[in-house]
Amino acid sequence: FVSKKNSKKGSKQDSVYIAALLIQRWYRQYVARLEMRRRCTWNIFQSIEYAGEQDQIKLYNFFGFLMDHFTPASSERNLISHIFRENEICRDTDWERYFCYKSIEVPESYTGPHLTFPMTFCGVSKLVEAFKHKQQLHARYVLQILGETWRLLRILPNINYVSICHNQEITICGDLHGQFEDLLLIFYKNGLPSSEKPYVFNGDFVDRGKNSLEILLILFGFLLVYPNDVHLNRGNHEDHIVNLRYGFTKEILGKYRVHGKKILKLLQKIFSWLPLATVIDNKVLIVHGGISDMTDLNVIARVDRHKVREDCKMNKSDSDSDSEPEGKETDEREWKQIVDLLWSDPMPQNGCIPNEVRGGGCYFGPDVTEEVLERHNLQLLIRSHECKQDGYEFCHNRKVLTIFSASNYYEVGSNRGAYIRMGCDLVPHFIQYQASRTCRELTLRQRYAAKTSDITFKSLRETLFVHKSDLISAFKEFDPNNTGMISLRHWASATENILNLGLPWRVLRSQLVNSTKYGMVDYQQWIRELSITEPKLEISDASILDTMYKNHSNLETIFRIIDTDHSGSISFEEFRQTWKLLSSHLKTEISDEAIADLAQSIDFNKDGSIDINEFMEAFRLVDLSAHT
Amino acid sequence: MVESNNQSAENTMSEVHKRIKAAFERFKLSPNTVDVREIGTIMYSLGCFPSQADLHDFIAEVEEDHSGFIHLDRFLPAMTKVLLEHKFPPIPKEHLFQAFEVLDKDSKGYLEPEELTKYMTQEGEPFSQEEMDEMLTAFSDQETNVIYYKDIVSQLTIDPGN
């Protein structure tokens, strides 16, 4: 292994040269392998995340489908209408009365922050401090801030046009996802919002992280104090149905047991009223997701943004009875443009295709960016929506800039967060950070140095488990002689066909398959070894279990939707109807008897209603290997 | 990672192609190109141990006229040759350990961070400052700050998961 290059030193030093060379080569190879593994892990998380979003849209489609196909007379139709009663026509003044905070008393024993209105800079700063010290704001004040916010948002346009003065810079932040630490970091590094320090927050303030409400209250607080200098764009997670799945609803109900429902309802209204875009100096467009080839800001400016729903169909039954069919089609086209703004992702190839991975919006290519920007006389599109390792990333010849502000998003060490500072020259400058949870500063690579990424593989094992019966069928196709064994190549191919996650299964094999004999996998044993516990229920019809496992991620969401008053439990009848709906949508046969069985066995305390938590508990996937 | 030894030469070739394509896939910018700066990482991840000089030679062979991009069409045959001919084989653990012993002139059993820095940034194919900082952060002992190379050798020679 002697290098061919000439060494500058004499022969005495050759051994040092060679030794150093050796060590360098080893180290570089080691680092490269870590990088490969990091990318792989990243892909896994991202695939699972996007598959979840896809499920979400499927859910919308499910309800839309039902609205279309059930007759007015059927009882199931009533259930759906009952669920979506928010579409009932009710004047804003009636809602204002419902949301009124005045009757709520703040007890003497309350140790959290007190707010006075109108809000001031000091008031909001104090609120930031209070949240930093983990205090909780009383429901009265929450409703008060939210009420004021709602009132303000209703007079804001769909698109905020902003100009930057000389000597001023605007700060633009991406997804925060309930990660309060990151918002604090940004404020610490950059300063609090004010008329000298304008900010744009580009959506996805909530879900996943544990402090979504705190982030919202702070952002709304600053919005109220500086309505001309703080700009909020709606993200795809500012949506009450998405919140049912991704944790925000749970967070609110957990923190506010008595007034949570009211708060959620008001937030639902607020989200629908959030502006959709911000334009800086008529040159820089900022939206949460992206654009499509249909994007037309003039059209978007005119839309009634608070009426838009992801599944446009759901509003069909409740829109004005005298509006023309043509009118409805125009509505749908307009609403689709908005969905595109909130859900689209850029892609490297030219063109504009539906975003199948997310289930909503488009994939848009550099030609679409070029065309849309030119048509509107813009020079840059700033968007968020996708996690980036360095917190930001350019694409499309630097005409599209992604900014993401939630650090360590997938797991500790996964990525940095970043924000943009931009002056009147409209050149973006980036500040990156990482909220560290350990005392010792670790390099990104070091975090991966020691062991396998436990969290990744836990999610992956869960996903594999919920598809076990499909997997076994697929494996059996490669095993015509019923030997119980298949080759690793076939294992990888079958797994990808079923899960459709686009992951490098052959590379992941060593983490997922414990034992192989001469390159063959005992697939039945492998499924057993995924170490997920079986549920404690005894049910006559095994296929129900199968259906439930496959739809595990949607189950909880569906149930929370049924539980319209957020009481935490649903009646047998509601349960039965829901089940029938789901099974017809999934085209599976489930007998009434089997459903009744299931309902009985879940009602552990035999009080005639089903507690959602009990239900989910019975089906919770537990990774036993974590406990061994 | 090669699963079976009793495959025909043809199968081996297609196995090799698959591995190369999979590695290429992870870094690609557009369907068939990668940034030239990623070639080192890709080669290392395929189990090769080229020196920087080796890398430069390889890149000169496959790069599209200094465009900064490498096309799969040229990468695949060149890389296949490298793998089938075992051009840049791994170095045995003992040699790595001996290398550290050579640098540890006083046979202390460890290296001071300044010592290691001097060698890594001045000898061989020098590290950049970033590489040096990362290595020190990753491998210096938490309390004493020195580098116990016996431990590193075990770590560097363990397959990190793949």
TrEMBL record, chain A:
<dbReference type="GO" id="GO:0005506">
    <property type="term" value="F:iron ion binding"/>
</dbReference>
<keyword id="KW-0106">Calcium</keyword>
<comment type="similarity">
    <text>Belongs to the PPP phosphatase family.</text>
</comment>
<dbReference type="Pfam" id="PF08321">
    <property type="entry name" value="PPP5"/>
</dbReference>
<dbReference type="InterPro" id="IPR018247">
    <property type="entry name" value="EF_Hand_1_Ca_BS"/>
</dbReference>
<dbReference type="InterPro" id="IPR051134">
    <property type="entry name" value="PPP_phosphatase"/>
</dbReference>
<dbReference type="InterPro" id="IPR029052">
    <property type="entry name" value="Metallo-depent_PP-like"/>
</dbReference>
<dbReference type="GO" id="GO:0030145">
    <property type="term" value="F:manganese ion binding"/>
</dbReference>
<dbReference type="Pfam" id="PF00149">
    <property type="entry name" value="Metallophos"/>
</dbReference>
<keyword id="KW-0460">Magnesium</keyword>
<keyword id="KW-0378">Hydrolase</keyword>
<dbReference type="GO" id="GO:0005509">
    <property type="term" value="F:calcium ion binding"/>
</dbReference>
<keyword id="KW-0464">Manganese</keyword>
<dbReference type="InterPro" id="IPR011992">
    <property type="entry name" value="EF-hand-dom_pair"/>
</dbReference>
<keyword id="KW-0479">Metal-binding</keyword>
<dbReference type="InterPro" id="IPR002048">
    <property type="entry name" value="EF_hand_dom"/>
</dbReference>
<feature type="domain" description="EF-hand">
    <location>
        <begin position="466"/>
        <end position="501"/>
    </location>
</feature>
<feature type="domain" description="EF-hand">
    <location>
        <begin position="590"/>
        <end position="625"/>
    </location>
</feature>
<dbReference type="GO" id="GO:0051879">
    <property type="term" value="F:Hsp90 protein binding"/>
</dbReference>
<dbReference type="InterPro" id="IPR006186">
    <property type="entry name" value="Ser/Thr-sp_prot-phosphatase"/>
</dbReference>
<feature type="domain" description="EF-hand">
    <location>
        <begin position="550"/>
        <end position="585"/>
    </location>
</feature>
<dbReference type="Pfam" id="PF13499">
    <property type="entry name" value="EF-hand_7"/>
</dbReference>
Automatic annotation (TrEMBL), chain B:
<dbReference type="GO" id="GO:0043226">
    <property type="term" value="C:organelle"/>
</dbReference>
<dbReference type="Pfam" id="PF13499">
    <property type="entry name" value="EF-hand_7"/>
</dbReference>
<dbReference type="GO" id="GO:0005509">
    <property type="term" value="F:calcium ion binding"/>
</dbReference>
<feature type="domain" description="EF-hand">
    <location>
        <begin position="91"/>
        <end position="126"/>
    </location>
</feature>
<protein>
    <submittedName>
        <fullName>Dynein regulatory complex protein 8</fullName>
    </submittedName>
</protein>
<dbReference type="InterPro" id="IPR011992">
    <property type="entry name" value="EF-hand-dom_pair"/>
</dbReference>
<dbReference type="InterPro" id="IPR002048">
    <property type="entry name" value="EF_hand_dom"/>
</dbReference>
<keyword id="KW-0677">Repeat</keyword>
